[in-house]
Amino acid sequence: MTEQTKNQRFKEMVLPHLHAAYNLARWLTRNDQDAEDVTQEATLRAFKFFDSFRGEQGRAWLLGIVRNTCYTKFQKNRGQELNTPFDDESHSLESQNPDMPHGNPESILSRHEDFKQLNGALERLPVEFREAVVLKDLEDLSYKEIADVTAVPLGTVMSRLARGRKLLRVYLAQTEQGNGDGM
């Protein structure tokens, strides 16, 4: 493969998925700066090893590299599980969707509170469940693609997703019960 062909194929197969790569890195690291670093490093690794890519699913391949880069970075540099504090300001509803249509203050507050509750519940999930939920429900990957990204059997993906969603419902119900008394 010529260098020009490689560059063009990389642009077509991998670069359109940078947003998904950043999104996964952000949910795993829970930190915008680290997510940017991981995404950049993963993209460089993807380009370096693109000659070995034989598939047609650039998105799943890139997300697998992002995941591996993320785990490697944190095991090497911090020696801790991916458990950094969640930043409410940078993950606020406004930062996620700056073009959000305006509404009355009650509906805006309600959407903002719902988003904060969901983010808080996702943050509480163990990392294995969080990544399964993010990859399926936010990034819309198939079970097979998630299995490829996470390098676990398909049954494990389904189990993690089911358990993650169940925990998410429990956490959201706990949050709702806690807020029901004050409103």
Summarize the structure.
It is built from nine helices and no strands. With 183 residues, the chain is mostly helical.
Walk me through the structure.
It is a single chain. The protein is mostly helical. It has 2 domains: 1-79, Orthogonal Bundle (Rna Polymerase Sigma Factor, Chain: A), CATH 1.10.1740; 102-183, Winged helix-like DNA-binding domain superfamily/Winged helix DNA-binding domain (Arc Repressor Mutant, subunit A), CATH 1.10.10. The protein is built from 9 helices and no strands. The chain is elongated.
| Mean pLDDT reading | 80
- What is the strand content? under 5%
Class inferred from helices and paired strands: mainly alpha
Query: Total domains, how many?
Result: 2
Quantity of strands, as a count:
0
The CATH architecture designation of the largest domain is Orthogonal Bundle
Q: Based on Cα principal axes, name the global outline.
A: elongated
Tell me the CATH topology of the largest domain.
Answer: Arc Repressor Mutant, subunit A
What is the succession of H and E elements?
A: HHHHHHHHH
CATH superfamily of the largest domain: Winged helix-like DNA-binding domain superfamily/Winged helix DNA-binding domain
Q: Span between N and C termini?
A: 63 Å
CATH class of the largest domain: Mainly Alpha
Number of helices: 9
Describe the oligomeric state of these chains in a short phrase.
single chain
The amount of helix comes to: over 70%
* Rg over C-alpha atoms, rounded to the nearest angstrom: 18 Å
